[in-house]
Amino acid sequence: MEENKLKDETPKVLLAQGEDGKMKAIAGEGADGKLKTVDPTKENADSFLKIDTRNNALENFFKKFSEQFKNPSHTGIYAVS
Asked: Cα separations (Å) of 70 from 4, 14, 61, 65?
């Protein structure tokens, strides 16, 4: 029964309170170790840090990496050939 519950869960989006007092979606971690946050709008949905509780951390990392590789326009990562 517990196994079925885990399969039905949707990925979680982490939220934090921004310096302006408004809720922000966590997009990742900056080079300085601070959290990078974005406004939780539909336009920023691709940059949200999503945690899929059904997978382990390594699977989540590679899934996010693959998404970023396929659509690098909002990440600052560029494919050069």
From this structure: 31, 23, 14, 9
Helix (H) or strand (E) holding 17: strand 15-17
Who's near 13: CB < 8 A, 6+ residues apart?
Answer: 25, 26, 40, 48, 49, 50, 51
Taking the whole predicted model, whether its pTM rises above 0.70 is answered as: no
- Number of structural domains the chain divides into: 1
Question: 10 Å Cβ neighbour count for 37?
Answer: 24
Evaluate if residue 75 carries a pLDDT over 50: no
The verdict on residue 32 lying in a domain is yes
Range of the domain at 36: 2-74
Q: What is the DSSP string of 46-76?
A: GGS-EE-TTS-HHHHHHHHHHHHHH-GGGTT
Residues of the chain with pLDDT > 70, as a percent, come to: 54
